[in-house]
Amino acid sequence: MLVIMKNDATQEQIQTVIQYIESLGYRGIPMPGAQRTAICIIGNQGPVEDSHILSLPGVKETLRVTKPYKLVSRETHPQPSVIKIGEVTIGSDEPVIIAGPCAVESEEQALKTALLVRNYGVKIFRGGAYKLRTSPYSFQGLGKQGLKILDKVRQETGLLIITEATDHENLGIVEQYADIIQIGARNMQNYSLLRRAGQSNKPILLKRGFAATIEELLMSAEYIMSEGNHQIILCERGIRTFSDNTRNTLDLSAIPSIKELSHLPVIVDPSHAAGKREYVIPLARGALAVGADGLMVEVHCDPANALSDGRQSLYPEQFHKLMLEISRFYPIRCN
Ligand code: PEP
Ligand code: MN
């Protein structure tokens, strides 16, 4: 249930409502909006008796939330959420472009790629230090050394850093080095990891599992938000279908669907969907055309020698072309 406060409700009145909700054994989470504050009641198994709530000062009305996810639902928060990290805003008119290699392989590779993408206007650099690979014999990432390289990239380039936490154990250290913590497709339903991410004060990029429905993705985001972290960005990265011409099938319809159901920003990763670099740019165009709040693109300074996902990584000059094209239609700056 949602308790809608009057426009002029005071902080004290909001606190009184929350305390009453807690006295019933539930939790009341304030959701400040542009027009009004709503308090979302979570933890109740059945309907909440609202007659006393309606009599409290400052309360306008109560609304039933019909979806199983509450905090991430549009019903709870009708305005889109905008996430601010330094000078970057995610969920605004300006699409956010995240770029970098699949994995951090060496200081030279990471810095070289970072300087290239920064020159083309990118503000957030991606690169995995901990990699979840299908084969145990594939390159698993540099671990802590990779995080230190990312730290150096941040210092030398001023770029923000996104990198993946692959389990409950490494989230703590990833949190110290990352500006945004990525949770990968394979971990979308790793609930202990999601809860731990919910206790972090860093924004979380949550990728859709390759066999997950939109509702399951939103339920996973709810795990994070129910622990107190409201800074969540969703990412569509392709799902598994019978179609095998691409690595995954990019579900572009997920973007308007998520926008209808949730207030969270959603970006698209065309690289892991495509699996081949020649499809990345067309899919990126489609993603922005259907309303994605940004893109996460794999770019490598030397794709032919990449230790992971070289086949889908753009050459720097291809990425430059993509950035130039995007800057013709959207308010991003590209050199
Ligand atoms: C990645 O972005 O590095 C990655 C492994 O992607 P996904 O979790 O979508 O497979
Ligand atoms: Mn990759």
Provide structural commentary.
The chain is an alpha/beta fold. It folds into 2 domains: 2-63, Phospho-2-dehydro-3-deoxyheptonate aldolase, domain 1 (Alpha-Beta Plaits), CATH 3.30.70.1140; 83-327, TIM Barrel, CATH 3.20.20.70. 35% of the residues lie in helices and 18% in strands. It has 11 helices and 14 strands. The protein has helices at 11-23, 51-55, 107-119, 144-157, 168-177, 191-198, 214-226, 254-261, 270-274, 277-289, 316-329; strands at residues 2-5, 27-32, 37-42, 59-63, 83-85, 88-90, 96-100, 124-126, 160-164, 180-183, 204-207, 232-236, 266-268, 294-298. The strands form 3 sheets. The protein has an 8-stranded parallel β-sheet with strand order 13-12-11-10-9-8-7-14. Strands 2-3-1-4 form a 4-stranded antiparallel β-sheet. Strands 5-6 form a two-stranded antiparallel sheet. α4 links the parallel β8 and β9. α3 packs parallel to α4 (144-157) and α6 crosses α7. The radius of gyration is 21 Å and the shape is elongated. The mean pLDDT is 96.
